[in-house]
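Hi everyone,

Forwarding the result from last night's run.
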Amino acid sequence: MSDTPGAPVDAARARAPSRRRVTLTLCALAGLLLLLLIPDPRPLPPVPARGTPFEWNQDLVWEALESRSQALRTLSPEEARVSVDAALATLRSTLAELHALSLEAPATVTPGVTAVLSRVEQATFDAAAALAAHPERADELVLLQSALRSDVKRLSRTLRPSESSARRLLYRALYGSRAALEEVLLQMRPEDMPVLSRGEDEPSAAPSAELRGVRVHSGDILVSRGGAPTSALIARGNDYPGNFSHVALLYVSPEGEVETVESHIERGVVVAGIEQYLEDRKLRVMLLRPRADQAALLQNPSLPHDAASRARSAALARHIPYDFEGNRRDASEQFCSEVVSANYGAEGLSLWEGLTTTSDPDTARWLGAFGVREFETHGPSDLEYDPKLVVVAEWRDPDALFADHLDAAVVDALLEGARRGDAVTHDWRLLPVARLMKAYSWVLNRFGRVGPVPEGMSATVALRVQALGARHAALRAHVETAATAYQREHGHRAPYWDLVRLAREANAR
């Protein structure tokens, strides 16, 4: 201690500026925190598309099919074989009607067309109910569903998917037959489940290579379903809920090297080796190819390869950000479907004859909360109905197929909640941290690197994505537990309509 009388006074004077600096620093930090907590400006309400959401409205049919399947499980092997034989024979008979109809090329939806497709639908569901009880003959249903799909695709050349009544019929046939088949596949052990379903080996003049047992060509299109909750939302959040959430364009070099050109939320449009595409979690993948008999391809057989080359060159030449709004008319930013539509369109082949529409205002409100502004656009599932494309093959991941159904059931229940007024929420207290992460990401983006918040996504939307993931995971855990209990009680996996019921019950808690 100093023995100088003025020392304490001088020390106090010296500490005063220090305290002021601390106070000013704290005030500045508090002010910065308050600034970072200011909500984003509220955007204009989303404008839904015109249209009518598709609804099956067949709960009684599903219950009857499940009861029939349960009854068939109690039969002796010989009695079961007779029932399965009869169901498959009826399906083959109705598919013969469908094939004949597809060759007639009807120009409009008539009562006769509707009647044939109705009989095919009923026979498909009946066969699925029988085979779900005895799935050891599932391979036969795989082949029949592939034939059904080929004939319905042929019908789409004259019954245009851009016309609403035709779109509904095509959707019921293609989506419904896949759903029926998968109810059978899910009753099998994963190691016994058929992985590959072959379609038509459409000829192509483009360079080719072998991929998972299928000959692929440059310009082929891969549609897939990812494993994130937002992937299920993309697939299900429209007037015609589908099975696919992502599109990639294949490029095959003359030497046989296979790459993909695709747009990712995190990185925008990128070119990558096929190994990276296959390593990313895919619950299902479908391979499509342009029809070789179209005028544009007859004039230029290398058109698909030219489109893939154009897309690849553009992605390597400049950075193309991901388009969160879904604006198909502006190619300066591109979402996944736009990579295909823009580059094929530039080569003279216009795809996406039938557009994805979201006409329900509450579903549009949910999608709008994640940055979507266009509700009539190019959706991945649309390509299955496009008459200019044929289905070459479809791969399913046996270990992930039930996860696909769980995810879709949870999202369907969440969207039903949206129609009751449920909102997309986020933890506003995390907004300062999220905005700092966004600033950090912005710096990384300037150097061509990927940050924790994707380019083009706001901090608020990033928090909503995080919140949706947490909510989806919690509901999914409840549904998975309930589905396990269902399987123990009934001796087989719960069908999709029961998964949706379980998801509704979990969401109502």
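The mean pLDDT is 92.

Cheers,
N.
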